[in-house]
TrEMBL record:
Keywords, alphabetical: ATP-binding, Helicase, Hydrolase, Nucleotide-binding, RNA-binding
One Gene Ontology molecular-function label: hydrolase activity
Protein name: RNA helicase
Organism field: Allomyces macrogynus (strain ATCC 38327)
Residues of the signal peptide: none
PANTHER family xref list: ATP-DEPENDENT RNA HELICASE RHLE-RELATED, RNA HELICASE
SUPFAM superfamilies attached to this UniProt entry: P-loop containing nucleoside triphosphate hydrolases (SSF52540)
Compositional bias segments (type: Low complexity): 53-73
Similarity remark: Belongs to the DEAD box helicase family. DDX52/ROK1 subfamily.
Pfam families attached to this UniProt entry: DEAD (PF00270), Helicase_C (PF00271)
Length: 609
């Protein structure tokens, strides 16, 4: 209960009302502390996303054999043995009951439990013990199918819902296949779009490997001239490209390449860097795995050009849908001022379950909303690309620990980050269906329930239909009239994705007062900068690699946390403008369309396809 006591500092929430949240935090603490029987059992029940387990009170009508039940030991022997599949039909039935769809030739059967890994794939005891010690008892559907595929040396293109355990699905087989630490150099390379995600993947790898393994993370903070040798390298694309160009890292021994949040990494902006990374990895021995919760068809085509011909595509559930454990709703706020009133009402009446994560479309808007809510006395903080690494790490820790109840974020936090979030609010309407799925996917993770509320104004109405479709496909109720709305054209959707709409400032002040305050703040900032300069100190700012390469018209940092910025300007608010310059420059170079570009890479490498 200690953690819950500290949660209440400065907050305005009613503890009795949030009894469920108290229980969530208690469960999390216990699970982390040890392999407590009761907690593991609870976690297992909560994690039973698709009715995997037949133990307990699962209402699933699965015909598949039971997976492991909760156990106190860290040994796979404790799992009840599972009958091997009698024939192909049994395999198909099992896949159907777990909503696993595969596309490819000679696809191995899914594992039914982690014990299968030892029986069929001779997984080492130590790895098995670590899986169990991490509290993982039953594999999730993506793990059931992707783990045997990767263990069999196959390339995998996987799309599975947010929070469904994709990280372990690639980390476990890689750790098993690397066998033991070696001085050979980088043998597994994992690339992810943001620094936060890279650090999170490192933690997940750390759960499975011992201290002798050298797992290295490459971010701006890592001096690339003193890069130690390592077995597994986890990096953001830009920093890795810098290390490759500086000759600080050799990738010629890479056997496993993983692109996490693959669709993001294959978008223009990251694609050039990913091309360079692919070119630095050998093709003959390289096994490539691409994972994401969203995969547009065009991205899939592109992805296949960098993989071997016998790549297997694995889709869990329906492609590009939200997790079914999230209750989604849409709230019409009229205009921008209506949004501020609505959020105040939502937060003050205690109607929403904390921790609450609020997404806005730009750094400026994140700052504006923060100012409004913090003056209301809320236990709130804000995270975006203009905050320093230290600030970002601290805020995420505070939020994870439950010391912070409301966090305002830009899309820099939309992908991959694994936290216990009860409610996601899209204060600003997402600029694409993918952004919507990833944003709301910060809640409802690992089988837990979650809630997502999306505000929309009159101006957002033309784009409502796409979100309504996602809601319907993931089983949420939507009013009939919304289903008859006209769908935005492809051009309109592209335009929105490229730049978020201009929105009125988030402020309860009159325009005159707001300008006066802004002028005053700018003067103070400028004076602080002059003082620092006079003292010969460089103002602390975020790493260039975490700044966006482009700025949406509204100053947004979108999801582009790791794009390169050619010119860096002074001052936080000016940073995104520098990024815009970088983007224009990229355009001027006449960046090749994705498919063409990737084909060039494949050809250039003499890919083993
Ligand atoms: N087999 C398992 N049993 C229990 N918990 C699991 C299992 N596999 C993963 N988890 C937990 O589920 C949570 C979500 O996992 P992960 O972050 O890998 O999801 P993801 O599918 O990559 O999500 P996203 O698409 O948002 O990146 C993590 O807290 C992880 O520790």
């Amino acid at each position: 209960m200690d953690i819950f006591r500290s949660l209440t500092g400065g907050a305005r929430f009613d503890k009795k009302r949030f009894l469920n949240d108290v229980q969530v935090f208690e469960a999390k603490d216990d699970a982390a502390a040890s392999a407590n029987v009761g907690t593991v059992a609870t976690a297992l029940k909560a994690l039973d996303f698709f009715g995997t387990s037949t133990s307990g009170t699962s209402s699933s009508s699965t015909t598949a054999p039971s997976a492991a039940a909760a156990t106190t030991t860290d040994d796979l022997d404790a799992d009840p043995s599972v009958e091997p599949f009698a024939n192909d039909t049994a395999v198909q039935d099992f896949r159907r009951s777990h909503r696993i769809k595969v596309d490819g030739v000679d696809v191995p059967a899914p594992i039914q439990s982690f014990r299968d890994l030892r029986d069929t794939y001779t997984i080492r005891d130590r790895v098995a013990r670590n899986v169990r010690a991490a509290g993982y008892v039953t594999p999730t559907p993506i793990q059931m199918q992707a783990i045997p595929l990767i263990l069999r040396g196959r390339d995998v293109l996987a799309c599975a819902p947010t929070g469904s355990g994709k990280t372990l699905a690639y980390v476990l087989p890689i750790v098993h296949q690397l066998v033991e630490p070696s001085k050979e150099g980088v043998r597994a390379l994992i690339v992810a779009p943001t620094r936060e995600l890279v650090l999170q993947i490192e933690r997940e790898v750390g759960k499975l490997v011992g201290k002798k393994w050298r797992v290295h993370v490459l971010t701006k903070a890592t001096p690339i001239d003193r890069m130690p040798k390592c077995d597994i390298l986890i990096s953001t694309p830009m920093r890795l490209v810098q290390a490759i160009q500086a000759g600080a890292v050799q990738l010629n021994r890479v056997k496993h390449l993983v692109l996490d949040e693959a669709d993001k990494l294959l978008e223009l902006g990251f694609l050039e860097q990913v091309d360079e990374i692919l070119a630095a990895c050998p093709t003959t021995q390289r096994q490539t795995s691409l994972f994401s919760a969203t995969l547009a068809s065009a991205v899939e085509q592109l992805a296949k050009t960098v993989m071997r011909d016998d790549v297997v595509r694995v889709i869990i559930g329906l492609k590009n849908t939200a997790t079914s454990t999230i209750t989604q709703s849409l709230v019409f706020t009229g205009d921008e001022s209506g949004k501020l009133m609505t959020i105040r009402q939502h937060l003050k009446t205690g109607e929403l379950h904390p921790p609450v994560l609020i997404f806005v479309q730009s750094i400026d808007r994140a700052k504006e909303l923060f100012r409004e809510l913090v003056y209301d006395g809320m236990n709130v903080d804000v995270i975006h690309a203009d905050r320093t690494k230290q600030q970002r790490d601290k805020i995420i820790d505070q939020f994870r620990l439950g010391h912070l109840w409301i966090l305002i974020a830009t899309d820099v936090l939309a992908r991959g980050i694994d936290m216990v979030v009860q409610t996601v609010i899209n204060y600003d309407f997402p600029t694409s269906v993918e952004a919507y799925i990833h944003r709301i996917g910060r809640t409802g993770r690992a089988g837990r329930p979650g809630r997502a509320i999306t505000y929309f104004t009159r101006d957002d109405a033309p784009h409502l239909r796409s979100i309504v479709n996602v809601m319907k496909e993931s089983g949420c109720d939507v009013p009939e009239w919304m289903l008859s709305l006209k769908k935005a054209s492809q051009n309109e959707r592209k335009k929105l994705k490229k730049s978020a709409p201009k929105r009125a400032t988030i402020s309860t002040m009159s325009k005159y007062d707001a300008n006066k305050v802004k002028r005053k703040r700018d003067m103070i900032d400028a004076s602080k900068r002059r003082k620092l300069k006079a003292e010969g100190k460089v103002p602390t700012g975020p790493a260039e690699e975490e700044r966006p390469a482009k700025k949406s018209k509204s100053g947004g940092d979108s999801e582009d946390a790791d794009r390169p910025v050619k010119k860096r300007k002074k001052g936080a608010d000016e940073a995104a403008d520098g990024a815009e310059a970088g983007k224009k420059k990229g355009k001027g170079k006449g960046a090749a369309p994705p498919a063409k570009k990737a084909k060039k890479v494949k050809g250039g490498e003499g890919a083993s396809a």
